[in-house]
Design a protein that fits this description.
Blueprint lengths: L2 E2 L2 E2 L2 H8 L3 E3 L1 H9 L1 H9 L8 H17 L8 H14 L13 H16 L6 E13 L2 E14 L2 E8 L9 H17 L3 E20 L7 E9 L3 H4 L1 H10 L4 H14 L7 H4 L3 E9 L3 H20 L13 E3 L5 E3 L2 H6 L7 H10 L11
Helix pairs in contact: 2-3, 2-12, 4-5, 7-12, 9-10
């Protein structure tokens, strides 16, 4: 039996390797696209580098959710797993990025969001599969391989495909680059004969909140409102709504302010009286992504373009160019664009190019302005 990491080498994948097929993962394509030098270190020299805090924590959450969906763990295992991994990365001195003031607000928000998720997540009902290998022909003797986080079966041949995400929301500008993976996995299941009901990301840091309220301050009529809210921000976003509901339920202003103060500190609606919190419906947020022929073709083209580029280069290091460290704005102004290299790249501590750039530009204190 051949093992890759924690996975058994599937016989279908082994057959492709045995016949000399070129097999690409989506993450490999992204690495080629984002930084050829990183691709050289990873896939030519086979260096692993040091994973960043987000990839480590994301992997731990994914693994625990997989165990939960496979009945090898329960909801009660989520929070201890999160806390244990946070302790481990602290011990290993693997840190979250600092904010622009040098504080830990980025870490604090992420931990607060994910703690709320771990405390409130309920295993969905129905038929599911996790970590399913998919293979998709890309071109002659070239294939995509990947593992789907979660498949929901609506019947024997109709499915939904989901990806657990511990990251922040995608912007409209970058949603397509994130959506390609879902699209390719859906195409792979279609190739197997399945009908795709929908695809989407389960955004673990966020919730969908529904409640009866006024759409505008001046509105007299209450209607059903739906908001997508970052978990740790629920009280600040709904402060006025909750305050009015407390007053309408007969609580005086001092009581209302007390409850809101407690809820703000806990960053949770659970601290509120039952007759108030029961007026809010809170569910995990699933962001769906469309599947069209045009989007499918774009995803296929992207994979083949990155594979073509990778296969066109020899093993000489100088041919593998590093990521650009500057970005030109529409205004024509040029700014440093090094947040990824200095914080998220697995080779941030060993890449000679980013070290030289930092030394030249005297970059010492990094902030989050390029990420958020």
């Amino acid at each position: 039996m051949v093992i890759i990491g924690k996975r058994v080498l599937d016989s279908r994948l082994k057959a492709l390797y045995d016949k000399g097929a070129k097999v690409y993962s989506f993450s490999k394509a992204n690495t080629i696209h984002d930084c050829l030098y990183c691709a050289y270190l990873t896939y030519i020299l086979h260096n692993k580098g040091t994973p960043n805090c987000y990839s480590i924590m994301g992997t731990k959450v994914h693994d625990t959710l997989q165990a939960l969906m496979e009945n090898k763990a329960t909801e009660k295992d989520l929070l201890p797993a999160l806390q244990s991994e946070l302790d481990d990365i602290d011990m290993l001195n693997i840190t979250f990025p600092k904010d622009r003031h040098g504080n830990d607000s980025i870490k604090d928000k992420w931990v607060a969001d994910m703690t709320d998720f771990c405390k409130t997540f309920k295993k969905p009902k129905g038929k599911f599969q996790t970590e399913q290998l998919v293979l998709l022909p890309l071109s002659n003797n070239r294939y995509l391989q990947g593992y789907i986080d979660l498949i929901q079966f609506h019947n024997d041949k109709e499915i939904s495909i989901y990806d657990w995400k511990t990251s922040s929301q995608f912007t409209n500008k970058n949603v397509k680059e994130h959506g390609r993976q879902l699209v390719l996995y859906a195409m792979a299941k279609e190739y197997e004969g399945y009908k795709i009901h929908n695809v989407g990301w389960i955004m673990l840091k966020y919730i969908t909140v529904k409640y009866n309220g006024k759409a505008r301050i001046n509105s007299k009529k209450e209607t059903l409102q739906t908001k997508v809210i970052e978990r740790s921000q629920i009280i600040s976003v709904l402060y006025d709504v909750i305050y009015n509901k407390l007053l309408n339920a007969g609580y005086d202003k001092i009581e209302a302010e007390y409850y809101l103060q407690q809820a703000s500190q806990a960053k949770s609606i659970e601290i509120l009286p039952n007759n108030i919190k029961n007026q809010f419906s809170i569910k995990p947020y699933i962001r769906y992504y469309e599947l069209t022929d045009e989007i499918k073709q774009e995803a296929m083209d992207y994979m083949n373009q990155q594979a073509d580029l990778f296969e066109s280069l020899d093993n000489k290091e100088e041919n593998w160019k590093h990521r650009d460290f500057t970005k030109q704005l529409k205004s024509g102004k040029e700014i440093n664009d090094t947040f990824f290299c200095n914080n998220l790249c697995n080779f941030k501590s060993s890449c000679k190019y980013i070290k030289a750039f930092n030394d030249l530009n005297n970059i010492a204190d990094l902030d989050d302005s390029q990420l958020f």
